[in-house]
Amino acid sequence: MATAMEEPRKLRGHKSTATCCIASRDRPGIVLTSGEDGCICWFDLRCKDVQFIIDVGTEPVSSLCFKTGNENILYASCGNEIKSFDVHTLSATSWKPLESYNYNKDEVNQVVCNGRSSFLASADDSGDVKIIDLGQKCLYKTLRAGHTSICSSVQFIPWRPWEGSDTNNNSGQCLNPAFVHSIAIPEMDMVDKLDKICAVARGDGIVNLINIESELSRKGTSSKGSSSSSSNNVVKRVCLDYSVGGHNSAVSCVAFSLFQEKGRFLISGGNDKTVKIWDCFKCLDPNNNNNNSDLLHLNINLSKKVNWLCTNQSDSENLVVCDTTRVVKVYSIS
Question: How buried is 281 (Cβ within 10 angstroms: 0-12 exposed, 13-18 middle, 19+ buried)?
Fold first, then answer.
C-alpha cells in the first residue's frame, strides 16, 4: 500500500465550505463543485482559474447532478428545493433556473438522475424520497415507508431501471446498517467485472460491499436474469474495516473509479481526515483466501474531514475531494 502523495492541485472559487462535486463524463476536465455559500463553481482542469460561478441562492447547495445524456442541464438542491439550469443560457448577470421543484418537505441531501434521464430522485431529512417525472415536470411518486429518520443518500439501480436504493439512519432495513451516510452503485459497464453490488459508507467507519441481487434473492425478490449473483462463487458481502486499513471514524462518501480500468477502485472518504482507495477486484475475489493485506491500494492523509468526492476519466488529476474548507483538492491516482 502506498501513502506518499504529491501536493494536490487546489481549486478556489467558493467563499465557504465546499459540499459536493461532480465530474463530466462527456467533457474531460470539467468539474463542478457546490458550497455552503449557495454557489456552484464550474472548473475546467485545463485552465488555471474557475470558469464561472452560478449563484443558486442564499441556502447551501447540498447536492449536484447532470441530466443523463445531456450535461448542459444541471440539477442542484438547496434547502428543500431542486433547481435546474441550462448552462448554455447562463450569463454573468442572469442565473435564472429552467425549472424549480419544491416537493420535498425537508432539506434535500442528495439528488440523482436515472439512466434514461426520465426521472429525478431526491432524498431528504424527513426520510422521504421524491421521484420527479422530468418529462411531465411533476411529482411521480413519494417513497416514504422505508425510513423512520433521515434519508441521506439515494441511487437508481441501472440494471433495475424502475427501482432504486436509498439509505437512512435507522437499523433493520433491507440492505443497510445503521448510520449510513452514502451509497454508490456501479454503472452498467462496470457490472460485468464487479457484479451487481452496492458500496455503503457507514457511520461506524466501515465500508461495505453488498451484492444487491444476493440480498434480494434472500428476501425472495430477486429479478429475472440475476442468476450470476446467486452463484455460490460470488462474494455476497465484504466488510472493509479498521483491521484491513480502513477508517477509524465515520465514512462520509464512497465512489467507484472512472479512471484507468473503470470500477477497479472504490474510493472512500471519512471524518478521520483520510481518503482510502480500495482494489475492488481483490476485495471481491472469491479466491482471495482471506489475504486482506493488499485490499487497500492507497491511503491519502488530509488536514480536514471529507464532505464529498468524485472521480473522472483522466490519467491524472482524476480524484476531486471536497473537505470542510472552501478549497477543493484534486489528486492524481495511478
Answer: middle
**Class of domain 9-331 (CATH, top level):** mainly beta
**Prediction pTM value:** 0.89
**What's the pLDDT tens digit per position in 88-104?**
887 666 678 999 999 99
321 Cβ contact list (under 8 Å, min separation 6): 8, 21, 269, 275, 302, 306, 308, 309, 328, 329, 330, 331
**Nearest Cα to Cα of residue 24 among 88, 74, 62, 84:** 74
Q: Rg for the chain (alpha carbons), in Å?
A: 19
At 159-195, the pLDDT tens digits run: 886 666 676 655 334 444 458 999 999 999 999 999 9
What is the percent of the chain with per-residue pLDDT over 70, rounded to a whole number? 85
User: Is 225 a residue whose pLDDT tops 80?
Assistant: no
CA 52/CA 334 separation, integer angstroms: 30
Q: What is the DSSP letter of 222?
A: P
Angle at 275 between CA 173 and CA 150, to 5 degrees: 30
List the one residue out of 253, 249, 211 whose CA is nearest residue 231: 211
Q: Beginning with the edge strand found earlier in the chain, give each strand of the sheet holding 18-23 in spatial order.
A: 18-23, 30-35, 39-44, 52-55
The neighbouring-strand residues paired with 85 are 74
Query: What are the domain boundaries of the chain?
Result: 9-331
What gap in Å lies between CA 138 and CA 106, rounded to an integer? 18
Q: Which residues, including other chains, have CB under 8 Å from residue 326's CB and lie 6 or more apart?
A: 12, 14, 15, 16, 17, 18, 35, 37
What's the rounded Cα separation, in Å, for the pair 155 and 166?
6
pLDDT the model gives residue 236: 82
Alpha-carbon distance 80 to 124, whole Å? Answer: 8
Across the chain, mean pLDDT equals 88
